[in-house]
Every structure is written in C-alpha cells, then in structure tokens.
Amino acid sequence: ANTRKWIFASNKTKNKGTFTWSGGIINGNGVNQGEEIEPDHDVSRSFQLMNFYKVEISNVLIKDIAGHAIAHWGNEYAHFHDIEIRQGISPTHPTGGSRRDGITGSSKNLVFENLKGFVDDDFIAVCAGWDWVGSGSTVNVENVYVKNIQLERNIQDPTFGCFRGFAVYSREGFTVKNLVVDGVFGYVNTEC
After folding, report:
1. How many CB atoms neighbour CB 169 within 10 A?
2. How many Å apart are CA 49 and CA 86, to the nearest integer?
3. Is 105:74 a contact under the CB 8 Å cutoff?
C-alpha cells in the first residue's frame, strides 16, 4: 500500500480553524513516495489541506514531490504566496500532463501571488466540482486572484517548460466566478 503519501494531511472534519505555514524547504527527494503506477498514479502530495476556515502557505520551497506540491479542498479562504515549486519530470508521463503538479484544488476564495518554478502538469489548477482526494469537499469557487506567476524551464532539461501555467476546471454543475489574472509569464509546453 502507499503509506508514504503526504508530508502534511488534514482530516475531513469540516469547519476547522486556520492553517499557516511559512518558511523552509520541503524536499520529497522524488523517491519513497506513493507508487507511480496506472491508473491510481496521483497519490503523493506535500500538503493536503481540507475544510479549514483559512489556509496560508508562504515563503517556502517545495521540490521533488511525486504528485501535487499543494492540494486544497473545501477551505473558505486559501492564500498561497511567495512560493517556489521545483518538480521533476514524471517517469510515467515524460511528456508532461500527469503528476508533479503545483497547487491544485477547490477552495471558495483563492489568492495566488508571487509564485515561480517548474511543474510537469498544471502550475495552478482551480477545480470546482472535483473530489480527487475523497474529501467530500467540493465547493463552488467564488473568487480567484492570480498575480505574478513565473513559469520556468526544468533545471535538468531546459527544453521542458511547465505543461500548463494556469488552468480552470469545473464539472457536475459547480462554478468558478470572479476570476482576476494579473501576470502569468514564462514557458509552457501546451497552453497557459
């Protein structure tokens, strides 16, 4: 079984208080995490944050996580700022588009500011109506503010840009409203 999936994972309890993390380096070392096998290949995350009133992560370097650097679901407010993400290229999907994401999830009010780095999938993905982690925390996304996102090339292979810069997904009648994007720059292999 995949017992080494998360560095920090909250439980499914609704209406928790505040979660704040500032500073440091989170290094997944790209090994000894959840297995990268099909079809259940998206199993490792550094943070899995669900059902808080407020989440704030800042001033941190997150690298070599075999899945999402940060996953968030069902929080009232989530603020991600001054973060560097350095993912590797997925051995199961070397052309990108699956695994080694940046920040993915569905919280009601979202702010993404001053982020940079390389990911092999979505750098930022807002996913209204998705319940990837089985949290039962699918919500409509009311407000999204994105500012100063720098998408970089992979350090080991500079021919690779991020697979996608900023993506918005919705399904099963869930919605994303009030979207403001102020500066997503850099290199992508597909679309921004």
Report:
1. 15
2. 20
3. no
